[in-house]
Amino acid sequence: MPAYVSMTFEYSRLELDYDNMKELIAYIRHAQLEFKGGVGEYENESLEEIMDYNQKKLEENFVLGSGEDKKNDYKQMRFGYEGFSEIRGYISNNYPADREYSFTLLFPEEEVMAEKGVYRTEAVAKMKNIASLLWILPKTRTVQTELETGDGILTEQQIKDGAAPSVCPLAIVCEKQFGQMDTDPYTDDHIYAGGALLMPKDIKLV
Predict the structure, then answer these.
(1) What is the pLDDT of residue 54?
(2) Which member of 103, 109, 114, 187 lies 3.0 to 4.6 Å from 3 by CB, making a disulfide possible if both were Cys?
(3) E strand or H helix at 127
(4) By three-state DSSP, how is residue 80 classified?
C-alpha cells in the first residue's frame, strides 16, 4: 500500500466481551463504509467472517510475535467511501498500550494531502464524517490521526495526564477530557455522544 494517513479508534480490553466485533460491524455500516473484501488470501471472505476471526484473536489476547508468520495475525479489510480509491482497515491488540486494542483505517496520503503540510478540504470533511459516526460506538475512548511517519497515537490516559493527542488532521476526545486540556492549539466542534472533534488552528486546507 502507498503512503497513508491513519485514523485510529482506541478501546479498552477491560470492556472486551463476546460481541465487540459485531458491534463494530454495525457502526462501520452506520458510517457508510462500503466493505470491498478482505486483504490477500482473505479477499473473498465476508466482513462477518473476518470479524469473527478477529474476535477470537482478541479473546485469546493474541499479539503477533517477532518473526512469526503474518498469516497468523488479525485479518485486514478493504473499504470504499465517497471516492477514496481504497481504505484499509485492521485490528491491533495491546495498542496503543497493554490492555487496549484499536481499529485503524488507512487513507491514501496523496488523496488526503495536496502537498506536505497541506490537506485537501474535501478529504478532511469525509474523514470527519467517518470519525464522528464511529465515535458513537460507546466503547470508543479516543479517535486520533497521524501520518505514516508519526510515532503512534497516545493513550486516553496519557492525554488525561496532559499529553497532546495526535491530530493529523483531526482527533476526537470526550468533552470532559477536552475541558481539562490545553485547547489553545485547536478549533473544536462539539459533536454527538459527548465528543469534541479537534483540528489544529494552523491547519492548511486547499
Answers:
(1) 98
(2) 109
(3) helix 121-135
(4) strand
Average pLDDT by stretches of 10, the chain with 206 residues: 93 96 98 98 97 98 92 96 97 96 98 96 98 97 95 93 95 92 93 96 96
CB contact burial 102-128 (16+ within 10 A = b; e otherwise):
bbbbbbbbebbbeeeeebbeebbebbb
pLDDT, tens only, 100-134: 999 999 999 999 999 999 999 999 999 999 999 99
Assigned C-alpha cell, 198? 479537534
Q: Quick one: DSSP state of residue 96?
A: S
Contacts of 193 (CB under 8 A, 6+ apart): 135, 136, 138
* Confidence at residue 1, expressed as pLDDT on a 0 to 100 scale: 67
155 is written with which cell numbers? 493513550
Instruction: Kindly give, in sequence order, each residue whose CB lies less than 8 Å from that of residue 144, ignoring residues fewer than 6 positions away.
Output: 7, 8, 10, 153, 154, 165, 166, 167, 171
Cβ atoms of 173 and 142 closer than 8 Å: yes
